């Protein structure tokens, strides 16, 4: 009995000494360890003391190929404890996971990025109709199509420039699988395994910073180089040294346009005129037409009184008709007295809106931007009355 008691005491002491050399680990812990051996089963790793365990190959799927090929004894890896492998009186090999540690790190990165309003980098995994899936340190996140900038372009047929459609997005995403992309974190919820990301938010933030810097150097009335980066139904978006601006459709040409694509195209580089700088709201209003002479500047030379031109009726009012001369980009008035020789006639009985007419220029006032037109056949030829042709006999000699 004494011998058995002594043996039991010695065994307890040995176990206690062994436990001193073993790092206390718990299931789910994320720890750093050193590579001890690489074999067909995976990687043997030591977390300190006698805490050696195995990372099976099935738990190393997320490790980069280059990192795996260059892995050697002594290198450090972050792992998660799946099985401790230690219980009193037994000796089982602990099992660790590189993948699950990476995922835990990924969630930490996402949460810290959201709190710090900082960007993160991910790798494109693929796409569906709703957007793109990306990998961030083992965490699969999602970028809605409306939050993608690199693969989706503005729709010219919508009035709101923030609305976008997938033109070549799916094909571009398929070609760029495994490519890196930088995004901002919109929502992260580890318990629901949900991470929503946005490239648009990051690009907008970078644009705002660039715009703030560029706007400090710009002044109204300045002429600068710009590049057309997008078209919408209401104008053209341009890039000025990283800052975006808008050329409203009314500032693209002196003539009336149905679409910006009639005068500009995406990728085109051109000079633009700084029309307005709204530094508070970070908006840059630009113009192209202000770089060319306006129609009123040379109207006396191009369309003097007596010129016959084509005009399109735009409005009908009680006192006459407004008609636009598209070749010149100006609008003039056909007064009711110049519509017909018939008195008290209704203008709507003579012409219709959008009807093209041949009219004659009868008056010009470029300073006040007034243009008088006439629909009469020969409005400028007026016969002089006989009383003005020769003096009356009563005035030839004094009465008796």
How would you portray this structure in words?
By secondary structure, the chain is α+β, with helices and mostly antiparallel strands. 20% of the residues lie in helices and 37% in strands. The chain has seven helices and 24 strands. The chain has helices at 2-21, 65-69, 98-116, 169-175, 199-217, 299-302, 386-389; strands at residues 30-38, 42-46, 52-56, 76-83, 86-87, 90-91, 95-97, 119-128, 131-136, 139-144, 153-154, 164-165, 180-189, 194-198, 223-232, 235-240, 243-248, 269-278, 283-287, 308-317, 320-325, 330-335, 356-365, 370-374. The strands form six sheets. A five-stranded antiparallel beta sheet has the order 3-2-1-4-7. The longest helix is centred in the first third of the chain and has 20 residues, at 2-21. It is rod-shaped. The protein starts with a helix and ends in an 11-residue tail after the last helix. Residues 153-168 and 383-400 have low confidence and may be disordered.
Top keywords for this entry?
400 residues; alpha+beta; five-stranded antiparallel β-sheet; 24 strands; rod-shaped
Question: What would you say about this model in short?
Answer:
This protein is α+β, with helices and mostly antiparallel strands and 400 residues long. The protein is built from seven helices and 24 strands.
What is this structure's SSE topology?
Blueprint: H1 2-21, E1 30-38, E2 42-46, E3 52-56, H2 65-69, E4 76-83, E5 86-87, E6 90-91, E7 95-97, H3 98-116, E8 119-128, E9 131-136, E10 139-144, E11 153-154, E12 164-165, H4 169-175, E13 180-189, E14 194-198, H5 199-217, E15 223-232, E16 235-240, E17 243-248, E18 269-278, E19 283-287, H6 299-302, E20 308-317, E21 320-325, E22 330-335, E23 356-365, E24 370-374, H7 386-389
